[in-house]
Amino acid sequence: MRHRVVCALVLAIGSAATPDSFAAGTYARDPQQPIDTAYTAKIAEYTTESQFNSPLTNYLPASTSVPTPAKVLGDVSGAPNMLPYTKDIVRYFDLLAQASPRVKVLRIGKSEEGREMIAVAIADEALLAGLKDNDARLAQLADPRSIGLDDAKADALVAQSTPVYYITGTIHSPETGAPTALMELAYRLAVDDAPYIRKIRTHVITLITPVVETDGRDRMVDLYNWHRANPGKTPPPLMYWGHYVAHDNNRDAMGLTLNLSRNVLDTYLGWHAQVLHDLHESVPFLYDNTVGDGPYNAWVDPILVGEWQQLGWDNVQQLTGFGMPGVFAHGDFDTWSPGYLMFMAAMHNGISRLYETFGNSGADTLDRILDPADYARTWYRPNPPLPKVRWSQRNNNNYEQTGLLTALNYFADNDKRFLRNFYLKGKRSIEKPTAAGPAAYVLPVDDAHRDAQRQLLHILQLQHAEVSRSTGPITVQVPAAPEKDDKSDDKSNSGKTDGQGKDGKPKTVARTFAAGGFVVRMDQPYARIADALLDRQFWSPEDPQKHPYDDTAWSFGDLFGTEVVRVADNAILKAPMELLREPVRVQGGVQGSGNIYLIDNHADTALMTLRYALKDADVAVAEKPFDAASRHFGAGTWIVRKVDNATFSTKLNALGLDAYAVAAAPDVAAHRIGAPRIALMHTWLTTQTEGWWRMALDKLGVPYSYISTQTVAREDNLRGRYDVILFAPLDMSDAPGGAGISHLIVNGLPLWGNPMPWKTTAQTPNMNIDQTDDIRPGLGAAGLAHLQRFVEQGGLFLAAGNAARFAIETGLAPGVSVTPPKDLRVVGSVLKGVVADEASPVNFGYGKDIAMYSADGLSFKLSNLLTGDDGLPNAKDYKRPTGRGGPHDVDTPEGRASVEAAELPAPKPWEATPLNADQSQPNVFFPYMVIPQDQRARALVRFADEDELLISGLLSGGSALAEHAAVVDARYGKGHTLLFAINPIWRGETIGSYGLVFNAILNFDHLY
Ligand SMILES: [Zn+2]
């Protein structure tokens, strides 16, 4: 049986819906083409009101040979109560391709869990047959150097070429509508003979990836099936979307850490596409956020800004013209961060687009009550959504398809103009050095942080940016370092401040880069992505946009901890260099001879891989600098014994690490480091932000146990199992005026209602990663006691962000409190940290400064008292009383000899106030309030002084954060609680601060 729903259909000509006057114009149907009446009737049945459909999608053309989505779905696209799995969606597109010469399906890669991703090309059969030639022409337009930047040649290519419009669906798993909408859209594009569809087919190659997040899609379908099978019960939230991260998969377009990001980018660039249009669901009824709001990303071509407006507002006009309410553009999404999937196009000379349509997170038909903010009439939303509405998945599919069809129609009408813009944007990228600058970025060959450098260059290459290697020394003018920095040997600032002199003109000095360094030239077609990643960002506190949508900064050179020099001097483009055609590799190996090997510690992530790869090796860490093998080695240098030379060399080479062999161990204080047993603890509240930590450990080959707070509640011998427990930030904030984060972590969710399982069963086969019968219980009193005992018995509990807040609030970090934020504003900024304790192994391999990612400006205050320092006198707050003398004189009482008062302490903001002998005495009522010497917390890294604090992004009210503690080593019994105010492991972008975590893990039993 070929059509389950449609098997009994009678082919009728054009009767189900009479085309209205609009449809009779641009979007008129082919009166000769029969419609699929059964399917068409279902569309009408599942659409809750006719205004939620359009003449474009209120019918389905019939075909005697091409299967409709009903063939696989058993019902029409957008039908209630059913969501297809990834494999069924793929199966439909395969059937479509088998049945229609206008459809081609390509496998574009796999997800982390091995699920197939596809791209489906739809166009006229002649176009598909000539794909190769068309692509060859598009490739030339994509790289105007290939035609010598010759506009006439470009015009000739444009005249012969067809553009590619790439549509991506369901990157966000609870946004469930896109796959069925795209199945039906593909069918329409392949089958419908309406003149406008024929025009689209012959003027545009439509490329579709129906499911971007395939792992998350299947888990979402499981969850929905559980919901259907358990009526009246509350389902768990979608605890895991992709294998590592949830909503943040749409922030990975910079770091490209996820398979889906690389697969989509490679497809987009491999097809030389002009548009990347990503489908989302949240606000009613169709928000075309292509136009977005300011501030716009500072690195996009102004031509793109015009295209955004053009396409966005045309969409609004068309759908409004069909009588569909609630279609708007502009809105409040700022277009600053390039982390979104769609931004792959914006940063590679294409057009980024995004729809938010109205979804019900599943296929239930629901009565929805909108917030006033969603139905309010505004200048950009003159026809707002209805305040109350009965809404179905079919409505959503109608909006998605109608929007896309009108967009494709507009694109087909303007195909040559968009192709010419595509060429022009590429050409303008190549002309960037002369038009706007800079000329290039240089990553010097002598950078000690070559592990981080290699990782950064690798990302640029994944971004398809060209990286060259100099074949001789290069001397160019670079900005002079600001004078106050002259005493510092820190080079991280030297290339990237624009170096304004006192007269306002840039001051430059000559700098020579040794041969073999890396150069990212800006006279290349994909210069914009490299520039956006390597430059710094500034978000003015005065910007009218007060609600940044995401991080305000991401400057990769800073966050990777590797030197990146912005070179404005165009002379560099004539310097000798060769383009690297292979991924950048760093050679490593053993130098010299002997049975003891010394390895520099530059906080390289590769060291962590090496430690676990050579579990049996005897590794010690030097606690002080020393000289050996005619070299100087810093504190933290590894001293390795008992390794097989051949295995060791191979491993070093693979990791790009060097070892210096010596015959005798250096005479330096050292301690041994093992391969500590790590647990990564998650809650059942949210798993997103820890996913980035999990990914970092997996990618580096570091073994760990993945445990939940519920595991900890059951496990009364944590110390017997683990040396280190990591607790990453939670992607949730305290409920205002209500439950704090610690309350939620300890108590979990309220136990009303039903148990909410996250479990692999026959009905929910994809709910893996971790499992529980009920996500509601939290850590509990028992779990907290187990954690306390773990630290007390010598374990390391390492907590970051609001997980650090939890450690403080539950007493695991005596003497530490959270600094009141006052009027501080930080939104995903890059801030400067300063090493406050050079002797701490946590800081091994770091210089004086560390660039740190701060999500919200969290910092810590320390005290030697359990009650905190408030009330302890200090020199800064002391005000002299009324009495004799001037304001700086000492008052002397009359009638007795004056006694000099003890000098008041003047602690720095990151330090605890030192206690005098009297204050150190046990207080008679609260004798335990004084923290013993060996149990006092200390700051290992602090935030920089206020005028140096901001490296990149948004900062205001910085005095509340300046000089406060950023990384704190707190004591609890024999163990340590290490607190991070920053997030050291974030989106694969903060390689430079990973080492703080890894140093702490490896030295967990030698932190003092
Ligand atoms: Zn979304």
What would a concise description of this structure say?
The protein is an alpha+beta fold and 1008 residues long. It has 30 helices and 41 strands.
Any descriptors?
single chain; binds zinc ion; 30 helices; globular; disordered N terminus
Overall shape: it is globular
Query: Structural class from helices and strands?
Result: alpha+beta
Quantity of strands, as a count:
41
What is the count of DSSP helices, taking H or I runs of 4+ residues? 30
Fraction of residues in helix: 25-40%
Radius of gyration: 31 Å
Describe this structure in words.
The protein has 30 helices and 41 strands. Helix content is 29%, strand content 18%. Helix 7 (151-160) runs antiparallel to helix 16. Strands 28, 29, 30, 31, 34, 35, 37, 38, 40 and 41 form a ten-stranded mixed beta sheet that branches. With 1008 residues, it is an alpha+beta fold. A hairpin with a 2-residue loop joins strand 23 (626-628) and strand 24 (631-633). The model is unreliable at 1-23 and 485-495 (pLDDT under 50). It is globular, with a radius of gyration of 31 Å. The structure holds zinc ion (ZN). The site of zinc ion has 3 residues, from loops. Zinc ion is lined by residues 172, 175, 280.
